[in-house]
């Protein structure tokens, strides 16, 4: 069987999955609202060596909780490694097949997030988010041979739930930003850093010479995309809540500039000195965002 569902080709592959799930479940929310309400628009996670694993190796539980404000319940089916027993994999495969047969979208993350769009007699059929032959489009039952020795996978399923009051959803997304920066240890573990500390980790990595590597490019493109969608989210808030429009438009402007800066920083050929200057500038702009956010939630009408 194969489900009629398509993964959006976003740099942030998790959000490409969520866009596809929302479309399949006929949830009427814009892409900026999905990024904003889920909190992903405001997230950043940087490894000390600016490893490309930054967008994947973090505590996803707060994201899963906030995703319910998008009308989506995301169920975790467990983590599996190359050492996971065949019996464990068989149980997992039966569970995912059952979810698909019930019409519930599923996904897997192993290097990147992919929608699991169906299955045949030999394995799962998976989406490929970009126009390239990676990650694999098929996953053989039992051995998951297409992943070779690189197995550190989580599986998830999705179902629709009632959309909450938009005022509450927006307030919770703004509270997430504050908590992320006040309690960063709840969202990632060393050697990764999130919130404002992510900028410090990125700066240290650039100074050590990692700014010319693939990880710097990948983190720059992902987090730039998130900030750009965050800017659009604040623009939507400005349009929906006239009393908050001036504050929201200021936040939109700041996030738009931050997104441009991070995209520039992603260039592996950009000289180290310029990268450092730009990252420092983006960090100061995000500090300004945090100060303004303290006031915005109070203007969201109840």
Describe this structure in words.
The structure is a single chain. The chain has 302 residues and is of the alpha+beta class. It has two domains: 109 residues, no CATH class; 134 residues. It contains nine helices and eight strands. The chain has a six-stranded antiparallel β-sheet with strand order 2-7-3-4-5-6, with helices on both faces. Strands 1-8 form a two-stranded antiparallel ribbon. Strand 3 and strand 4 form a beta hairpin. The model has no long low-confidence stretch (mean pLDDT 95).
**Could you tell me the number of beta strands?**
8
Q: How many DSSP helices?
A: 9
Can you write the helix and strand succession as a string? Answer: HHEHEHEEEEEHEHHHH
Tally of distinct domains:
2
Low-confidence stretches: none
What does the overall shape look like? globular
